[in-house]
Design goal:
This protein is an alpha/beta fold. It has helices spanning 13-28, 44-52, 65-68, 86-94, 105-117, 132-138, 150-154, 172-185, 197-207, 224-235, 271-287, and strands spanning 2-5, 34-37, 55-58, 76-79, 98-101, 123-126, 144-147, 163-166, 190-191, 214-218, 240-244, 260-265.
Length: 301
């Protein structure tokens, strides 16, 4: 039984930047109330590590960033790497909050593309419903139309001077399919495919894997990019692929009839958690026993 560690894996530059900004903000403002608007990244252990530093991550299922601001009345509000709409920034300023913006530069680029086009036409934005990155873009204008599946395309009415773009962490396969479907209906549309490079190279690394019996993707169940890695593995012919949050999610059933094991992780997954998975798998290869490892939050960020 062999272990193949897939590269690249783990934190992307946007996640590293957001975490570093959060830590520096706390270091520079040790007595201030600091609230992150949403999950800093989609990993519960990173959220817990931030809270251990005294930084609150404010998130609630079904609530937009604009609605979450109603619960913040003082101190510093940190914008996550996913970005927000202009309305959120204005509301935070109107409430007298200090804004620290950790929006990923790739997301900022998508915002700029959309803003530059909406004065001249409509935008079809391919993204995941309720995802904070998509939320921030579609709130820019009522001329931005969210598409998550073919049915959404079928339901679109007459649009003018259409531009098609997308959430940066979507599946390359899904984006390719949905763009083609959009172009059938809107033949003259311009396309700005905005999958970020970190997402692209991680997905391509999975597509290029050969002779893997099982792939473990280490990541949070709420992480879109982590879920996409698992889905791409299955679509690429890997018979078994599992999204696991920690090494303790691995069971012996997952390793039945397995010769070659692949390990990768989403762009919001700490290296520490992936290393634990590799350690547990190596121990299993040697002993045929799975061990339980505790997560030390102090080692997460």
């Amino acid at each position: 039984m062999d272990i193949i560690t897939v590269s690249p894996r783990g934190y992307c530059k946007g996640v590293i930047r957001a975490i570093n900004i959060a830590k520096k903000t706390k270091q520079d403002n040790p007595t201030s109330k600091i609230t992150i608007l949403g999950m800093i990244v989609h990993n519960k252990y990173v959220v817990e590590a931030c809270e251990n530093l005294g930084i609150v991550c404010l998130d609630a299922k079904g609530k937009t960033r604009l609605e979450l601001l109603d619960e913040i009345n003082e101190g510093i509000v940190l914008i996550t790497a996913h970005g927000v709409s202009d309305q959120v920034i204005k509301k935070a300023k109107d409430k007298g909050l200090t804004i620290v913006d950790a929006t990923c530069v790739d997301v900022i680029k998508t915002h700029d593309i959309v803003k530059n086009h909406i004065n001249n036409g409509d935008v079809i934005y391919i993204g995941k419903k309720t995802h904070p990155e998509a939320e921030g873009v579609i709130a820019l204008s009522d001329k931005v139309h969210l598409v998550s599946c073919k049915e959404d395309i079928d339901n679109l009415k007459e649009l003018k001077n259409v531009l098609i773009t997308n959430q940066t962490t979507m599946s390359l396969l899904d984006i390719d399919y949905l763009i083609k479907e959009c172009l059938i209906k809107f033949k003259d549309a311009k396309v700005y495919e905005e999958i970020c490079n970190a997402t692209r190279v991680r997905q391509e690394a999975i597509k290029n894997l050969e002779n893997i019996d099982v792939l473990f993707v280490v990541g949070d169940i709420s992480s879109n990019n982590s879920n996409q890695l698992k889905n791409i593995a299955l679509d690429s012919g890997i018979k078994k692929a599992f999204l696991i949050e920690t090494s303790n999610d691995i069971t012996k059933d997952m390793l039945n009839d397995v010769v070659s094991i692949g390990v990768t992780s989403g762009a919001s997954t700490p290296t520490y958690l992936t290393t634990q998975v590799i350690d547990v798998l190596n121990h299993y290869i040697e002993t045929k026993e799975l061990i339980h490892l505790n997560v030390d939050i102090s080692k997460i960020i």
